[in-house]
Amino acid sequence: MKKEKQTLHEAMSCLAESIARFTEDGELRPSKIQDLWLFRKPDLSEPLTGAYEPSICLIAQGAKRVMLGEDSYRYDASHYLFSGLHLPVVAQIIEASPDKPYLGLKLTFDYRDISQLMADSQLPPPRSQKTDRGMSTGKMTVPLANAFQRLVDLLDEEQDIPILAPVIQREIWYRLLVGDEGARLRQLAATGTQSQQVARAITWLKENFSEPLRVENLAEMASMGTSTFHHHFRNMTALSPLQYQKQLRLQEARRLMLADHLDAANAAFQVGYESPSQFSREYSRQFGAPPVRDISNLREAAIGAG
């Protein structure tokens, strides 16, 4: 008797059950598998600024909205989110409840692993590519969901993780390379492409955002003319280089004030601002309140949640 094929709904329901077993309410928990994170949130969230690193993000239950510049991405149990670069975003959980919490995962990746798989394999052509953005959504499939299921299930068999986790991750990269985001992923992983050259400059900017910005230097790093580089940078990130740097600076300043208890002037100086008044104006536009009031609100919210 032929076995009935598993539906996507069934596959994602099983994945949700597995994620729920390894998480607790309100907790973002790194797993024992390198680069795998599990999430469980019982409530809707306010829009929160943050950054997505090169990763694939799945939601087994619930939904989330991510804003990159003016672009909006919604993903849920039917769609995954692909982030091919380090990108500053505003994210919000838009479907969650105590009875049906938001359950998701994130698997980060190193382009060296993707490039090695491309070099080792005769890959079939990817599906059509519709965007130049470094972030996009793709349709979930049963084989991709099952691969993630096997990866999460390894948390019950820790002795098998060193051997089997890399094998399963390689399958996941393969399914991405031949799926909706395959062309974009190949462009970012392949040495010498314009996407890879811009990605290299973005990595430098991420690691040196407190330094004065000269777009000409970034363009030279990417082996492009300034106008060409600016065009490709905006196409990939939905931001200009200056906007990208500004968001990284403001996010880091917020973290320094909240976690390290720096005052606004010192935080501004550490992330590269020379004018405290300019910092305060841009901070207020980004986060909706001046630095002191914003940090006070965040601390009060944390105390209330506890």
Automatic annotation (TrEMBL):
InterPro entries on file: Homeodomain-like_sf, HTH_AraC, Tscrpt_reg_HTH_AraC_N
Domain HTH araC/xylS-type positions: 199-297
Record has Transcription regulation as a keyword: yes
Pfam hit, one: HTH_18
Gene3D superfamilies, alphabetized: Homeodomain-like
UniProtKB keywords: Transcription, Transcription regulation
Gene Ontology terms, MF aspect: DNA-binding transcription factor activity; sequence-specific DNA binding
TM stretches of this protein: none
SUPFAM superfamilies on file: Homeodomain-like
PROSITE patterns: HTH_ARAC_FAMILY_2 (PS01124)
Coiled coil: none
PANTHER family linked: ARAC-FAMILY TRANSCRIPTIONAL REGULATOR (PTHR43436), TRANSCRIPTIONAL REGULATORY PROTEIN (PTHR43436:SF1)
Protein's UniProt name: Transcriptional regulator, AraC family
